[in-house]
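Hi Q.,

Before the meeting this afternoon, I wanted you to have the iron/sulfur cluster prediction in hand. No need to reply - just skim if you have a minute. The sequence and ligand are here:
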Amino acid sequence: MNQESDVLLEVRDLKKHYVLSKRTVFGRREVLRAVDGISFSLRRGETLGLVGESGCGKTTTGKCIVRLIEPTSGQISLEGEDVVGASPDRIREIRKQMQIIFQDPYSSLNPRMTVGQIVGEPFAIHGICAGKERRQRVEALIDRVGLTRDSYTRFPHEFSGGQRQRVGIARALALNPKLVVCDEPVSALDVSIQAQVLNLMVQLQKESGLTYLFISHGLSAVKHISRRVGVMYLGKLVELGETEALFSSPLHPYTEALMSAIPRPDPDIVRERVLLEGDATDSNHPPSGCPFHARCRYRMAVCENEEPAWRDLGGGHFAACHLR
Ligand code: SF4
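Predicted structure with the ligand bound:
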């Protein structure tokens, strides 16, 4: 397999800006830059984690990729096919290859539908199979995610949070997608249940060669499942690299602060806790220069005026910081 065909998803200079009703002192409408020019690619069968504080744009990125929301500009291609410019008919076809799992398994499942109807819904929407064949395929999916066959006729409220997320995963896998965008899939679950659902996701990936974009603010979950990790701040990627390298030797001060907050299982390993100054700036009032400069303990004069370039610092480890 050549290098090009190894890439499943390519995202280039993706932006999602919202024009707000509030006006600036100059009378212009304020603009919320939820996602502000990010680029990355995903190889087949890999998991790329996307982390950052609430409001950093990671969920908006995931929703733009599956076209649940329309990007303002930029390119997204799946297996070389343009996703942003695809016609409604074509996007319907492309969506079979890209599915999304949501954070809250309860609100993302229709409480009036049985599990059989929920998992079988993608078959109905795309007119793929019906009757006995649909039931067999749905039961096979229910088996794959570790639920019992009698789940078919039961309703979401009869299940625990972890079981409901398994239903969401079964529905996402119904059409054999290549890419699954996982939007905080375990954040609403107890820690012990999180591990079970993550292990299931890893197992399904091995079985089917799935590619995951795993969005989470939970760094432990991201570390557990991701081969590479991207860190977002105020709508921009500030660092991206192999998981081990990024967790052990972060190159961006924001990543360093995030990593320092992870509890250490070994009390002999002491890592200085880096406390961030101030709050994250609004995405509709981004600062000049480096977007992180108001909170950075290493900031220099240049940081306030000049935005650092996004550069490969070796071995596919990217960062945007004047220190590097
Ligand atoms: Fe800190 Fe400057 Fe690097 Fe921004 S560019 S993260 S302010 S050192």
